[in-house]
Amino acid sequence: MEYLPEELLICTITRLLEGTGHIAVGVSSPIPGSAALLTRALSNGKTGVTVLNSANLQTLNDGAGELFDRAAQGRIGAFFLSGGQIDGQANINLVGVGQYPQQDVRWSGSFGSAMLYYLVPRVILFREEHTRRTMVDQVDFISAPGTSPPEVYRPGGPYALVTGLGLFHFDKLRARFRLTSIHPGHSLEEILDNTGFGFDYEGEIPITPTPEPDRLSLLRGPIAAEIADPYPKFAAAIFKS
Amino acid sequence: MILNDLSELAARIPDGAKIAIPPSRSGVAIAATHALIARNARGLHIVAIPTSGMQADMLIGAGAVQVMESAGVTLDEQGQAGRFVAAVKAGAIRLMDSTCPALISGLQAAEKGVPFLPMRGLIGSDLLKNRPDYKVVDNPMADGPDPIVLLPAIQPDIALFHAPLADRRGNVWIGKARELMTMAHAAHTTLVTVEEITEGDLMADPLRAPATIPAMYITAIARARGGAMPLALEGVYEADSAALAAYANAARTAEGFAAWLADAPGIAAA
Questions:
Q1: What is the spatial distance between Cα B108 and Cα A83, in angstroms, rounded to a whole number?
Q2: Residue A163 is assigned to a structural domain of this protein
Q3: In Å, how far are B32, B70, B84 from B22, measured between CA atoms?
Q4: Interface pTM, i.e. ipTM
Q5: CB-CB: which of A109, A119, A142 is closest to B71?
Q6: Facing residues of A125 across strands?
Q7: B:116-145 residues touching chain A, CB 8 A cutoff
Q8: What's the gap in Å between the CA of A140 and the closest CA on chain B?
């Protein structure tokens, strides 16, 4: 079955979400949002989803703080974060490039990352652009660190990193990424050339599985309709819905 | 108190005030922001609860802002907030970068009348490193070492937002945007613009009362139909994407922003 690169990414993220109780999706996250909804559809009612800024996928009614209260209580199983820069220790930078505060490049800000990254058990880092500009040796500003000293309360943290080129898992003890699979049509050389940080890999690295046909049908049918609520442009472009 | 127009409302916001403003879908007082710019406000300390977009960008572009305290300034799908980015690069505003739950906790501390609230997270971030007002202490309730961050109370001079409905007694119905309730509880003065003013008593309506800010927290109200436009007002109108795109495009340069502001529909009070 033919598929789009976005559909491969959605199905890759979906495999990382299996068994999650409640998944929260932040703003500007159509691909993670689609994966969360697909996970819910496959879960037989076990997985719940909250999509911020949607009309019908919104489960919160106690103001901007409720999501964070739920995360602090351990009620959120998975969340997605990204970064203008992500480094090899899984530190993320959502603030800017250069010497803070008067930076050469300024992004919007850290949003909820400096709390959710510590408290949500399965944080999936997602950044489609995989270049030496985004995957850096050391971030210029730490919006939220990838790891913390043992005395710091931290039930959560980075679980995996999904990019346009491959899938990495994060080893908390070594504070390093390990390359799990390479997306179809890409190579280890390409990933090495485009990654600014060192990472672990072993032997013959598998190719990321292509989207399962039954999941693709689900995605293009009911999930496409659901994701059109918060992300109409994305749904129209990818699923023609 | 029901004011006659938005300029009366803007006149109640002094230069140098610390103003709490809501995120983009929760009732952003854009029409009142035009009035504030028209009265040539200066030296404002903006506290976004917890993020802002077009409103903060407009105030920064107009030279009204001295301090920007927020967890994010973004025009969402329209991309970067051009005047905010330019001001950061030029060093024209002082940044108090934070994270969403820290801003909300700070406001809740003020609401409770306590000097601080503790919050998980932040330790090891450069946000914490750049916020000397955030303190790390050892959790006194724990048996072993457990560092935790204390966030100082944020008491805004002014809370400024837009809501769907008020009544003549001064009660304001906010729907699901509960952060507006927290803002009103925490702020010294709360100024609100509304779509409509009803003759009834919102506090006497059992369906509406739980989502109504009682009049005792509201300092003044002014009517402004479409007062959040081109941003959305949840449940009332959707965002005007074309108008937001036009703003985003104009705000890329100082000249573009000045031209956009000059073409803006002025102080549109009812």
A1: 29
A2: yes
A3: 13, 11, 17
A4: 0.96
A5: A109
A6: A81, A161
A7: 119-128, 130, 144-145
A8: 9
What does the pLDDT look like over B12-25, one tens digit per residue? 999 999 999 999 98
Q: Is A138 inside any structural domain?
A: no
Distance, in Å, from the CA atom of B120 to the CA atom of B8, rounded to the nearest integer, reads 42
pLDDT tens profile A166-211: 999 999 999 999 999 999 999 999 999 999 999 999 999 999 999 9
For A105-137, how does the pLDDT look when each residue is reduced to its tens digit (9 = 90+)? 999 999 999 999 999 999 999 999 999 999 999
3-class state of residue A160 by DSSP: strand
| Interface test mutation site (partner B, options A60, A82, A106, A116, max chain B beta carbons within 10 A) | A106
Helix %, strand %, coil % for chain A, to 5? 30, 20, 50
Q: Which of B73, B88, B180 sits opposite A101 (nearest CB)?
A: B88
Domain housing A152: 5-84+112-130+145-239
Chain A residues in contact with chain B using a Cβ-Cβ cutoff of 8 Å: 27-28, 53, 61-66, 68, 72, 94-96, 100-104, 106-119, 141-145, 148-149, 151-153, 233
Query: A102–B88: do the CB atoms touch at under 8 Å?
Result: yes
Overall number of domains in chain B: 2
Same domain, B42 and B133: no
Decide if B269 is inside a domain. no
Yes or no, beta carbons of A106 and B104 under 8 Å apart: no
Report the pLDDT value the prediction gives residue B143, as an integer from 0 to 100.
94
**Mean pLDDT in residue range B225-243:** 94
Contacts of A102 in chain B (CB under 8 A): 88-91
Range of the domain at B204: 6-98+157-263
| CATH number of the domain within which B36 lies | 3.40.1080.10
Residues 6+ apart with CB under 8 A from B185: B110, B111, B217
User: Which CATH number covers residue A161?
Assistant: 3.40.1080.10
Q: What angle do CA A27, A28, A31 make, to 5 degrees?
A: 115
Structural domain includes residue A169: yes
